[in-house]
Each structure stands twice: as C-alpha cells, then as structure tokens.
Amino acid sequence: MLLTVEAAARRLSVSRTTMFRLLKSGDVASVRIGHARRVPAEAITAYIKRLAAEQHAA
User: How many other C-beta atoms lie within 10 A of the C-beta of residue 39?
Assistant: First the structure.
C-alpha cells in the first residue's frame, strides 16, 4: 500500500515539512510515480522499528 506524503506524516504524527525532511535524508523510503511521491506503508513500519532499536541500544 502506498501513502501520500501527508498520510505518511499523519501516521508518524509529524508535520508535512518534517516528513519531507525524512524523505530527503533517506530515513524513510519513498517512490515516485510520475510527479507524485508516495511512501510505502512498510517504510513507515521499518522507520519506527529502526528508531525503537536505536533508542533501546542507547
């Protein structure tokens, strides 16, 4: 399932600007379909798991 940037931001409870920053940095994976950027739902899950693992290790 692909999410719009806005929907992905809502899932992470962050602003649209923060979501674009995460996409630009590569922290969250995305794909382009034409001119539209979409975020795979799995990319959100992977990002959350990675954050949790990093915070647990610290």
Answer: 26
